[in-house]
Design a protein that fits this description.
The chain is α/β, with parallel strands linked by helices. 34% of the residues lie in helices and 12% in strands. It starts with a helix and ends in a 14-residue tail after the last helix.
Length: 369
Amino acid sequence: MLLADMGADVLRIDRPSPPQDLGPRRTGKPVDITGRGRRSITLDLKSPSAASAVLELIEKADVLIEGFRPGTMERLDLGPDLVLERNPRVVYARMTGWGQTGPLAGDAGHDLNYIALSGVLSAIGLAGGRPLPPLNLVGDYGGGGMLLALGVVAALLNVQRGGAGQVVDAAMIEGAAQLGSIMWGLVAGGGWQEQRGSNILDGGAPWYDSYRTLDGHYMAVGAVEQRFYAELVKRLGLAGADLPKQYDRSGWPALRNAFARVFLGKTRDEWCTIFEGSDACVTPVLAFSEAPHHPQNRARGNFIEIDGVIQPAPAPRFLGTPSQALKSAPRRGERGDAALRQWGFDPSGVSRLRELGVGFLGQAEPQPA
């Protein structure tokens, strides 16, 4: 999705039949947001002729991205050696949880497992409680997809500068650990306690946490610097109160109780009015359904609607080459016929690919979704 958002022409090879236990279900709307902006062909990679079809596509491609367990592509006769021999300038990008090597390389896993072994999960959760999954953002997307996209762009830059194609081995366990680099530095410097909920950035500090309001919503408080903290105390009406010092850890429980009591006295909207225009670093905690309507998000156009589905707009922004209008995720084989033509396959080439098992949705070959 990231690469497609930035203008890459992404052609996805889908299974001819959908898996039964993976991916978002169709509900009448194209809700597979991360699948947006690409086109699709279908192919059974286990068929005898599949490798020949894929290698013909690879000849015209800049990048190949695969997310199978280590060894799968090799068994399909599509390993890096064969692919780079066919196209020496291709970037062969591999996405796994554990990496291509190591004792766990062949084991199943999910985001939670990868960030658990990275050390990051141990720091997420309330004091005295269990580690809490931070959705699946740290391993799958932050440490996985984004790191892979960065590796692809760097490898492409190397090719454009005259270098050869190469393999990008992106592992979610490593990406998750990398996202936690600042914490590793704090641990090494003695500035991080390895008990959850006892540090500045993990909810341990009362001035870096969220508080319930009168109407059952929450306000997020991030007043780390002293001048921002002073503004927070002032807007809460506690400027003259006998409060513990900001960085006095022994006083944090009393300070938290004071903040919690005050926040419970007004609704979220009332607090938004009180903190509007201030440097107290206090914002409402918005639900997914609320975020697109916030004035900041509306002013920036941070959310867009594609085929009736509201979703985040492409980021980051390029002022010189802005992202083009996006299309929703394709059905299996959708827009694949146009992709093959634009990739330079003439009618005989398209016919050859079809003989090798490639399918697509088009006037000449309608298929069910």
